[in-house]
Input
Amino acid sequence: MFQKILIANRGEIAIRVARTCRELGIATVAVYSEADLSSPHLFAADEAVCIGPAQASQSYLNAQALISAAQQTGAQAIHPGYGFLSENSAFAQLVREAGLTFIGPSSESLAAVGNKIFARQTVTKLGVPVVPALEHPSRDPALLREQVQALGYPVLIKAASGGGGKGMRIVRQEKELLEAAAAAEREAVSAFAEGTIYIERYIERPRHIEVQILGDQHGTLVHLGERECSIQRRYQKILEETPSPAVSPQLRDAMTTAALTVAKAAGYYNAGTVEFILDDQGRFYFLEVNARLQVEHPITEWITGLDLVREQIRIAAGERLGFAQNDIQRRGHAFECRVYAEDPARGFLPSPGTVLAWNAPTGPGIRVDAGVTAQTVVSVYYDPLIAKLSTWGQDREQARRRMESALRQCAVLGPTTNLPFLLDLVTHPAFIAGDTHTGFLTEHLSQWQPTSSAGHDLEAALTIAITHARKSRVTTATSVGGQPVTASPWQQLGGWRMGQ
Amino acid sequence: MKTTLLATNGTAVTVEYTQRGNNDYETQINGQATRIQLLSEEDGAVTLLVNGQPLRVHVVHDGQRSLAAIDGHVYEFSRAGEKKGTGRQRETGRLSPEIRSPMPGKILAVRVSAGDTVEAGQVLVLLEAMKMENALTAEGIGQVKKIHVSVGDLVELGQLLVELEFATAHQDGSEEVEKRGNGEK
Output
């Protein structure tokens, strides 16, 4: 087993990995950019190394800086988290060449499943269905138009490397095609340093279902059931659940078998996810393999009782899984909500800034994976995900009510967050009914504006007035009676300084 | 004690209360006499009894603005006279002729030129920030008066990007409300 692991990531996932390491008695090294001096992932680890300036390309994506940091601190392995370099086979290879262990699949498997075009060809040969697509979109505008015409609108454009919804676009009409392709290419370059795009037929009202797999280096490969991640906006997941309300035991058998077939063919080990889309006829199509820990892994941990990071570390160290498919029991239902620093009332515009106050929800079946605390700066340089709330219940409704309670308790003051949006989502009748698909938010919550129960706005205003007056009375007692004499009504209020 | 706060949507909220004891206040909420007792006051949070009902409020004062979170919602108020354009809720009424950067970022494209006529919702500028492309759009029908940035510029929060001139009210006298918003679509 490793004595020390470097965590090549930031925010909540770096903290989550550090927690398991601590449980296993493994020392941890955090890395940070110059923009992350206030990030709580620094004090979750035993050591911290600055790896460069704020831009991800010069810090969290800087393979050499990460490997040097590992060597300099004597770490034997690197956990990449998700995003950044987690699915970069060249990085995995460099880590191995430096004599370190990459906590993830082999660089060969990564390369095989990481490129969507290769992955697609491989799974087609295995008899796993795929969505019709253009594998080699032409760079010539006229040719591209012809190709897409032949494929049939609507189409989906995405980056050939990477996931997370970066660079994805739906195109419904030919006139939108070229601009969307160019934008997807630019986003792909800035997120993954690689601009190849990929175009496929878009399936209307699909559900996004993924199967969690786990394999060791000795040939044992198991699945941990599915997760439904249909609640997305612009291909960014915001809420996930397991099990899926749409997956019957028979369908689960078929999908998990397909997932294991794909993983086996890729010689896959470590934790991974095989993503599918499920149409409204119950047909599923292979989407891609995410060769890493997923953001939404906590819900699988809730229902299986396994710690996926622990399993990842054990597998990377060469240990055997030690359990078989039949040993895995799935129990109850779990949800995850992603709390983003963004404003859902203004087109989900990111809302960076300093977190002035933070309150984490608590209670039975509530788990919080937060990357911020009071005084953390949510910077403009990285993903605006600030926390993940997950809940478990004996059934879907109990888990959902616990999520509602968690969202009501959670408070982030400073950056605007999507918390009220999430609350309206989990209490929406269609969501309660489990009638979810990837267009759910567009269909039900596209004109969303914050609402609140009557009275709370006045209670908030009163609390502000009273607490500010109390604060001012202490700090500016000498100004009592010093009313400014100007015509501005704002300065005539006086109440702020008078105390009482 | 009477205090007027400015909500981020531009409406002024006036609250009035009387202090009865050190931690005891009396006020009206929706026309009802309401007693507010302050049970505890910590950094960032208070516990109140509102007519005997416990209420936990997370509250901070940050310069001219104050924020309070109750039951999953955040209420933000400005205690200063000038209103800011960063409101959480939309303003009904006047359109903003000044397109300012909602966050620090890089200008990816400028889609209009000075003198162009623009429609509500038309993309003016593409801004890359937090790894996403954000389209900044016109809020109503108008004309581009001046462009203050060019492709590749790094801009700060609140920096003036484009100035527009809006035509006066619509023929039927209605105001453009629905189309408002400068978020990506």
User: Anything to note?
Assistant: The two ends of chain A are 64 Å apart (CA to CA).
